[in-house]
Amino acid sequence: MAYPEQLIAPMRKDLTQYGVEEARTPADVDRLIGPNSGTVLIVTNSVCGCAAGRARPAIGMALKNKNRPDKTATVLAGADEAAVDHLRGILSQFPPSSPSMALFQDGKPVWMLHRRDIEQREAPQIASLMTEAFDRFCAKTTV
Asked: Is residue 138 annotated as a catalytic residue, yes or no?
């Protein structure tokens, strides 16, 4: 059963305020990470107080980095259930995790940050892990 929208609306806003797009359906997920989609970060947001409460501000910090994904989106565990299940199917080589962050290049997962990596860190440390991945996978090369 999904959480009531009035409970989760602030958690959605915690990410959309940074320009993060909501992917509420499997079709939204497919549209975002289809072939030739570039670099896309998809955040599995969560109502979990500690880990998600640290992850959401970390995302805002990381998105200020010079190198960042072409697109950033979010699904919310406990609310966007079909979208979360679909994303987890795409990420089947990784254990399910919420919160989590997955970075895709042209539809293929290249990096993932699990809850276990989030819950033991504060927001600036989480942001640092993200910016390291952004610098590795999102840097634009010139010819």
From this structure: no
